[in-house]
User: What shape does this take?
Amino acid sequence: MARIHPTALVDATAELAEDVEVGAYSIVGPHVTIGPESRVGPHVVLAGRTRIGARNRVFQFASIGEIPQDRKYGGEPTTTTIGDDNVFRECVTIHAGTVQDRGDTTIGNGNLFLAYSHVAHDCVVGNETIFSNNAQIAGHVKIGDWVVLGAYAGVHQFCRIGAHAMVAAYAKIVQDVPPFVMVAGDPPQPHGINSEGLKRRGFSPEDILEIRRAYKTLYRQGLTLDDARSAIARAAEGAPALAPLVEFLGVPGRGILR
Assistant: This one.
């Protein structure tokens, strides 16, 4: 039997695993699903059509699955999908999707959202990311696995940030950030690769060397983007670690931050 505080309001259509905890004065809306071993703190709002996986923890005053902040939204039954093992700290806000895009805001597994961070409508967040305090992403943004966003970092709508990238505090991202790259400053500029993060995640010295060479190809040799893309694709034939970078550069977006 789920442990629900007497002051919490849980809609009759919500589905909670038997060991879910819901704290004081929290609201669980219609058609919300919460997986096993998840804990919802006090004063939390989980809006309708939100699916939350296992072992998630939601702290006080967070709001997940509320309608999007989009003038085009007309009350359509859009959704929010949360994976497993995520942590949402105080006052985090996650908004549902829109029918003009995916119709769903998707968050993967093992992510850490610090206080006041925000994920807007139709975003896709991968696995093992960190959103530092007040990091904010606008609608339609895609965040790859293991990305770190510093405090007060802001990401423009439709941007992509590739896997293992790191965005420094207060950076304002208006173009795509390739995998592995560290970005800082205003306007933001590339500052090498996230080598320390790659070491912690088990990348070999040889892989890190190949990624560093690819970074120099993209940013230090004065090549056009097309020429740099072709050179990195050739290098990737003997360096599988470069595959995420090749894939990322092959997808059109808002332009690569250079």
The chain has two domains: 3-158, 198-249. Residues 205-219 form the longest helix (15 residues).
